Every structure is written in C-alpha cells, then in structure tokens.
Amino acid sequence: MPELQQPLENLLNTFNELNPSTVEELFAEPSPLEFMRYVARNTPFVVRGGASTWKATKKWDSAYLRTALEGQSVNVAVTPFGNADAPTFSPEHNATVISKPHEETQQFDDFFTYIIQQETDPAFPLDSEVRYAQTQNDNLRDEYLPLYPDAQRDIPFARIALGKEPDAINLWIGNSRSTTALHKDNFENIFVQIVGRKHFVLLPPLFHACVNEDLVLPATYVRQGEGFALAVDPDSPLVPLATWDPDEPERNATPLSALARPLRVTLEPGDMLYLPAMWYHKVKQSCPDGGEGFVLAINYW
Amino acid sequence: MPELQQPLENLLNTFNELNPSTVEELFAEPSPLEFMRYVARNTPFVVRGGASTWKATKKWDSAYLRTALEGQSVNVAVTPFGNADAPTFSPEHNATVISKPHEETQQFDDFFTYIIQQETDPAFPLDSEVRYAQTQNDNLRDEYLPLYPDAQRDIPFARIALGKEPDAINLWIGNSRSTTALHKDNFENIFVQIVGRKHFVLLPPLFHACVNEDLVLPATYVRQGEGFALAVDPDSPLVPLATWDPDEPERNATPLSALARPLRVTLEPGDMLYLPAMWYHKVKQSCPDGGEGFVLAINYW
C-alpha cells in the first residue's frame, strides 16, 4: 500500500519524538492507581528490586530446586536451536514456518542437569539440542506446585488495579541457548526475574507495519534419528507471525522497519517488568559469570 | 483507498459486536481506581445524579443567576443558526467552511433574557440569531467567578486518578437553538448537567473513517446589516473537520459511515458524563416543558 507509507512514516516518527527511548525505571512497586496509569497509557516499566525480598529470589539455587522437585516429571520444549515458536526456514517445504517445539516429559533432575551442563561445560557439544521448561499453562500451580509457596500468589498492585486474580502463573527455566522470538500476547503481563538475566526487546503495537507480519504454516519439531525434522501441523490454518527480528534489522525488513526504535531492558534477579498487552517482545537470556548456569523467571498474566 | 475498505469494515463490525450500544450507567461516583479503568478502556460512562447534591444543581434558577451576575458582562458566541464551529456551506466561497461564531460582549442580564425569550416566547421571530455563552477558557473561574463557590473545585475521582487539577472549568449557557457539531477534543472531559438537558451523540475514535473528515477553510461570522456574513480568516491554514452528521447519516457519508453506531445519552440535571479524550461527540440541548427556558452545564478538563 505505497500511498499509506508517508502517513505511517509521519506517525512513527512522531511517536519516536514524543516517547522515551528507554523503559521507565521505578525503585518501589507502584500503587494500584499508579499502575493503572501505566495501563491506561499502554506503557511498560521495570521495578528494580521489586521482588528482591521474595523467598524465591533468596532461596532458589540449584540445590534447593533439585530437593523441592525431587521425583517430579516436567514438560520440556525441545528444539535444535533454541527457536521455539520462531520464524524458521524449512528447506523441505521451501517456506518460512513457525517452528513449534517438540514437547516431552522429562525427570526434572535430568532436564535441569542438562541445561546447566550445556551452559557451563565447555566440552558440551555445541550442536546439542536446546531444552526449555516454558509451558505457559499456569505451571507454577501445577507441575511446579512445591515451589509455589516461595512466590507470591499474585502481584497485589496489579490484582487490585485490574480487579482480578492472575489467570496464569508460569515458571520459565532455561539457559542462554533459548530465545523467544518477537511476538505479542493479548494479556497484561508482569515478569519477575528470579535467577540469571532476561534481555527484553520491546516494540509498541503501533509498530505493526515494521515487524513484517506474515501468514505462515505452523510446523512442529519431531525427533528424527539424532536430530529433528519439522512436520507441518495437519489441517492447521496459517497463523500470523512477525518475521522481522530487531536484532537483524536488515533481514526481512519492510520499508518501515528502519523506523522501529525498540526499547531494550535487562532484568536482573529481583526485577519486575510490566509488559502491556499487545506489545511486541523478543526475549533472550544470559547467565552471569559465576552463576549456576540456569535462568529462571516467573510471569503473571 | 479501496483496498483498505474490507479490513476496516471487519474492524468496525467486530468493534460493534464486542461493545455495548449504550453508555454505561452508574448511580454513584466511581473510585479513582474504578475511574482509571474506564480511562484505560477509553470508555464513557454516565453517573446518574452524581451532582444532585451540588449547590449549583439545587440553587441555580434564573432569579439566582441574575442576582449573582448582576452588572457582569460576558462573552457571547452569536450565529445565525446555532451553528458555531460547524461545517457550513458558504455560497459566497462555494465551499464548506467551519463557521466560527461572532463573539461579542453583552450584559449578562440582556444575554440571559434573550435566550429565555427565544426559547419560551412563541412570538419570538423564528429566524432570530442564536446566542450561546460557550467560551472554553476556564470561564467559571473568570467571568462567572461569583458562581464558582456553588460548583466543585474539581471532580475528586478524576483529580486523584489523573494526578492533576482540572486545566479548565467551563460554564455553558444557552438554549435549544444551539448545537455543537460532531468533533473531538484532546482532553479527558467530565460534563455536569445543571439545568435543562444535553443530548450527546458519541462515537469512538476508531470510527474516524466514518466521519468524513475534510480540510476546510475557517471562516468567522460578522454582523452585516440585520444578518451575518462569513469572512474567511486571513492567513489561516485549513483545519480538519468532521463533515458527517450522525443525525443526517445519508448526507456527506463515506462508504463506511453506515457502520457507525453512535451511542446516545441524555443528561438530566445532576447527571455527570465521562467523555474520553478523542471520542467524537455532537451535543444538542433541550428545555423540558415547565422549565425556565435555558440550559446550563459545567465541564471539567
């Protein structure tokens, strides 16, 4: 739609001029009313140290987690490259698909040993598969129930402001090999970092024209010999997927992608992020030197 | 842009399906947090009787107003048809212009007698000019200061929620001959009806494609003999104006105007309306039988 490009350019440039290029930092939790002002403005913020007094932040090291979850089996998302739900070129289909992970049940201890060794053992094969506990089905109140008492039941300022309990509380356990590709969710989202770091790249909903959303086939990884194949989901409709990556801005760009000015924020243990509904976000992870080699976060939505 | 019409139709139809066709009614003022939820959802509401205990609502009849404002002169907007700031066809320019009122200073008593007689005296000439006290320059704390103690300094739920005092408090005094044409403002707005009725027609910002916004010349009425002429403002840029009227939906329609489903709400004395920023609104007025023949409201923004 070339006749639309100039007004869209003006709109995005104006937005960039009027809005800050960093995520606002608070150093204490907002009141419900203050929070609601951010919701009304559809604006993210980070509370530095907002969860620093949680039991989870203080107690969850690898020994504690292994003891608390002894004998538990957990759902694990497995991919060859840490590319769950990402745009992936499938040579077999000669098309970009959204690559859904292979999901399997593993003993927590085996899964946890694997991600830590992959992160910390220099001899671990570089091309080894990537595992990520990332079921977003309220898992902290299900598979990881033994850990639930160490976290909060909810985020009080959000519960009071929105007038409802969280729909789901999800635990995310992985290592630096997993990346969550740029996407958006239809929920108000509070992310709480417990162990390691998460690196968020954020883009407001207005920048839709920059992310090159395309309708793609959904395909799921299946184990095949030592590796993986992508099997297109039978009878599944095409799904919309952002195919532009803010970390590779030249690839898959639209004429307007150059106007995107993503906000970047890193969560350290104890930090909270308010991620407004419908904001695009890409999430990377890292383990600081001297850490135990895993990354753990909780989100409420 | 014909290729945009189908997605816009889908968007507007979906909005209509998911949203109520009436303005939500409350029967007590919301808390600041409840108010902020409406702001966040960009959704209007009316508080029936929210200002019924105000001194203004109880005391402001014509005798009281004449006494309180004795000797005051006030700014009056004068138009031939009650069409201040409306799209008006100017035969002289062979174009639709936005017709700004002639403004003049009148003794309050003279102005007030005029609008009441025009409303109530069957012998009053039908083609007589229309007068409306509608300066939106914080007039309740200026020209009408003697009345200010009878109104509230602010709307507490809005002041606390938005974290600021009102920028302006405006008094509006007129009769059923004045109509405010469909337009939008960049302010959160609380309307409080004191005397008579205001009939609001509301349309969410999303319905931009229905209101046939056009760039028009601004022109101002000037007295000419017994009547008026429209003089184009010198050196003024064209201004955007909604040229579609929800009460005459066939005229000046766009291909999408038929999808507009305006919300209609009538304010009775003591009612409050929250009108979110950027919502289109058209406002008519009426004087119930047995009333004194004027309409008076206050708005806070």
From TrEMBL, chains A, B:
Residues 134-301 form the JmjC domain. PROSITE patterns: JMJC. Gene3D superfamilies: Jelly Rolls. This is Predicted protein. The lineage of its organism: Eukaryota, Fungi, Dikarya, Ascomycota, Pezizomycotina.
